[in-house]
From TrEMBL:
Residue numbers spanned by region Disordered: 1-27
Keyword Lipid metabolism set for record: no
Positions annotated to bind heme: 412
Protein name as it appears in the record: Cytochrome P450
Gene Ontology MF, one: heme binding
Keywords tagged on the record: Heme, Iron, Metal-binding, Monooxygenase, Oxidoreductase
Cofactor(s) required for function per UniProt: heme
Family: Belongs to the cytochrome P450 family.
The UniProt record lists the keyword Heme: yes
Length: 469
């Protein structure tokens, strides 16, 4: 994928990270254009935008014979996400269905409402605070693995580290020990079959053209069987009192709206949904934040000073994370520039009107955080890395043009979980290591299920004591 690299920071001045080449004019209008768009989106979901899209707040389109609307206006986005007349297109769940089953991530309607209500107690601030020891342990393990290295692939390190954190928080299992089989299956699925393929865009429904999905079914079946076994084991021998609680503990004690326990299959599917939603997304957030800080060493030094003034070892609850406002702002600015879910859609269940545009039943509304977060009418200097823009925003969810975790009733229930995990892991790394890029080649975002890099660069690692000597 060609890159716009003219503004990459190599000295003083604002940092403008490189992006994929933007088309000068809109694509679409003919079957050949539709196939070209489908092909480009199967390679990179953000690869079909044009210059006009970063100025227009609403754009009608036709794709594969269906009308649609790209909505970047915050009022229109709010209307679509809050309206019961729009639902997530079922086919968008195709890549993850064999792994995540019927959990919260993919469920709809009344089933989703019931599940969301049942899971809410597991994601309160107090509940997430109880998981912090798992994140601290995973961050320490990751950093220890980097301790004797002068050069490292941090994309790979964060993949392992966040998977370790999620498995610890879900099951009290370590990715390199008693959770090794779970880790192997999860990585194989989420780094391969979970990503969109050309047939996923061409198919009309979740079960169309699935003849090529044998790898998804095989790996998904293995994962679900492993989680079934863990649930049975935990029911037979409840967890000991001498370890931090985990999410499986909470799901086993959760109650449905009727007051009864959750069925084992639902517990399994919820665990799988949490893995699918919380592993690679947090890994990508950490990679892009580190990439930006490596490009901006002055900001990296300021973040490190903040962390050293209140070390990770002093963190006992979520309130303690408020001691790192700049670190938090760096993560928010990273999510603005590199939203982990760069594009999603809603399908009209009935005829609707959005911002004066008719949306017939069955039509698609496309909402792209990638587009909205870089929109020229919604942000000041939208292409510039400027974490300070969030320092005066203690609750950035109030910014209507900021959608890193979606919006409306289906806003991500695990946002607090992911941010706490990312803050602790990144703080642990930065407290011990200075980080720089080993080369100046641009790293271009490529979007599928999440927003990853087109290559995994090496980072230079310098121990803090050595760096300050």
């Amino acid at each position: 994928m060609d890159a716009q690299v003219r503004d990459v920071k190599v000295g003083p001045g604002p940092l403008v990270p490189p992006v994929p080449k933007v088309h000068p004019r809109p694509l679409g209008g003919s079957p050949l254009d539709d196939l070209r768009i489908a092909w480009e989106m199967s390679r990179n979901l953000i690869g079909a935008w044009c210059e006009e899209d970063f100025d227009n707040l609403v754009t009608p389109y036709h794709f594969m014979g269906q009308p649609g609307l790209v909505v970047s206006d915050p009022a229109g986005v709010r209307q679509v996400l809050a309206s019961p007349n729009f639902r997530r297109p079922l086919k968008l769940g195709r890549p993850l269905k064999p792994l995540a089953g019927e959990g919260l991530l993919l469920s709809e309607g009344e089933t989703w409402k019931r599940q969301r209500k049942s899971l809410a107690p597991a994601f309160t601030p107090a509940a997430i605070g109880g998981l912090l020891p798992h994140f601290v342990a995973a961050g320490a393990s990751l950093t220890e693995g980097l301790a004797n290295q002068t050069k490292a692939n941090l994309s790979e390190a964060f993949h392992h580290g966040t998977l370790d954190a999620v498995l610890r928080a879900l099951f009290s299992r370590r990715a390199d020990r008693d959770g090794a089989v779970l880790a192997q299956i999860a990585r194989r699925y989420l780094e391969g079959p979970a990503h969109f393929r050309l047939l996923d865009f061409i198919g009309r429904g979740r079960d169309d053209l699935t003849f090529a999905d044998g790898d998804r079914r095989r790996l998904g079946g293995r994962w679900l069987a492993e989680v079934d076994a863990l649930i049975a084991q935990r029911r037979a021998a409840p967890a000991a009192d001498d370890r931090p609680g985990d999410l499986l503990d909470r799901l086993l004690t959760a109650r449905d709206e009727d007051g009864g326990p959750l069925p084992d299959q639902e517990i399994r599917d919820q665990c799988s949904s949490m893995l699918a939603a919380g592993f690679e997304t947090t890994s990508r957030l950490l990679f892009w934040a580190t990439y930006l800080l490596a490009r901006d060493p002055e900001t990296q030094d300021r973040v490190r000073a903040e962390i050293l003034a209140f070390p990770v070892e002093r963190v006992n609850g979520l309130d303690d994370l408020k001691a790192w406002p700049l670190l938090r702002s760096v993560l928010f600015e990273t999510l603005r520039l590199y939203p982990t879910a760069p594009t999603f859609g809603r399908q009209a269940l009935a005829d609707e009107t959005v911002l004066g545009h008719k949306v017939p039943a069955g039509a698609m509304v496309t909402i792209s955080p990638w587009l909205i977060h870089r929109h020229r009418k919604l942000w000041d200097a939208p292409a510039v890395f400027r974490p300070e823009r969030f320092l005066d925003q203690p609750h950035p969810w109030g910014i209507e043009a900021f959608l890193p975790f979606g919006g409306g009733p289906r806003v991500c229930i695990g946002a607090g979980f992911a941010l706490a995990e990312a803050q602790i892991i990144l703080a642990t790394v930065l407290a011990r290591l200075e980080i720089a890029l080993a080369d100046d080649r641009p790293v271009i975002p490529v979007a599928s299920i999440t927003l990853g890099p087109d290559r995994e660069p090496d980072f230079l690692l310098t121990p803090i004591v050595q760096a300050r000597a």
